[in-house]
Amino acid sequence: MVEAIGVGLFGCGTMGREVALAAASGRTGAARVIAVFDLDHPRALELVHGLPGLGRGWGSPSAPSALQEFLDTPGLRIVVECASQAAVRAVAVSAVEKGLDLLTISSGALLDQDLHDRLVAASERTGANIIVPSGAIGGIDTVRAVRGMLDEVVLISTKRPDAFAGAPGFAPFEGRRIDAPTVIFEGNAAKAVPLFPANVNVAATLSLAGLGPLRTKVKVVADPASPGNVHEIMARGSFGEVRLRFENRPHPGNQKTSALAVYSAIEALRSYCSRGIKVGT
Ligand SMILES: NC(=O)c1ccc[n+]([C@@H]2O[C@H](COP(=O)([O-])OP(=O)(O)OC[C@H]3O[C@@H](n4cnc5c(N)ncnc54)[C@H](O)[C@@H]3O)[C@@H](O)[C@H]2O)c1
Questions:
Q1: Rounded to whole angstroms, what are the CA distances from 219 to 154, 169, 190?
Q2: Which residues pair with 230 in a beta bridge?
């Protein structure tokens, strides 16, 4: 029996709520949500009050309005970020410097070299782990395994036009009718992520595993007939060639977020909280 693990949930939106539900129902094993935080404080309170069993024997989680109070929660072992790239900038370094493990889904933030280096340094100093789930794609284990043998990695992300609403990279297309598949970005992951911050975390995750943000090629396509949030990956090198296609259903709570990314975050937390055989990590 693994002892209960104190989890701090950072972000109580679509994904945060699903992670909380999974933890409350025991699907993440020893995880016990003991604190929740959201910039939108009423949302954090709503989550705590709406899920009375959330702490599973540890009592009701706290919902502090101050970040430091959240990080100082007694028994806290891991911060699970399900919020935004801005949230990673706000919480990640402080958490890891305190020796708290960090599971972060908004991987785009890690393409900021300064933040990346500070996190690595803090993790080396305190021994805290930083976990980036595979999110809305898979095959990250494969890309990591052949990292030194890669010549080319390409990601093509296709979504329905409304999934890009509000993204800086979609500004030239905003309000225009898109009737056919339209390439709205072509370049590298370093350029794609700030232009589509809520859409291409997958580009960041893929580039962190493989060739890095400058050499990972990204194409973003708006297609009204897209069957969902589709990510196609091609990786080739001296090891051979891999082609993967993910046809994800958007989560009903947020068109920009693939349901698969939610399942991936839940599975990453379950795996973190478990012992025994870990397959494919
Ligand atoms: N890695 C992947 O493959 C992948 C896939 C899908 C989504 N994501 C990312 O996961 C994150 C969560 O997605 P979601 O669908 O739950 O979003 P959401 O908009 O439904 O919820 C986000 C919540 O976080 C809160 N929040 C935002 N910034 C904050 C901050 N600085 N401090 C505290 N709280 C903050 C918001 O108030 C909101 O309640 C997003 O960053 C999204 O881009 C990653």
A1: 8, 12, 12
A2: 158, 247
Domains and CATH numbers, the chain: 5-132+261-272 (3.40.50.720), 140-248 (3.30.360.10)
**CB 266 within 8 Å of CB 18:** yes
**pLDDT digit string (tens) for 137-163?**
999 999 999 999 999 999 999 999 998
Buried b (16+ CB within 10 A) or exposed e, 129-153: ebbbbbbbbebbebbeebeeebeeb
Residue type, 177: R
- For the CA of 198, the nearest atom of ligand 1: 43
Nearest-CA residue for ligand 1 atom 21 is 13
Give pLDDT tens digits for 248-275.
Answer: 999 998 878 899 999 999 999 999 999 9
Is residue 231 flagged as an active site residue? Answer: yes
Task: Write down the pTM of the prediction.
Answer: 0.95
- CB-ligand 1 contact for 199 (6 Å cutoff): no
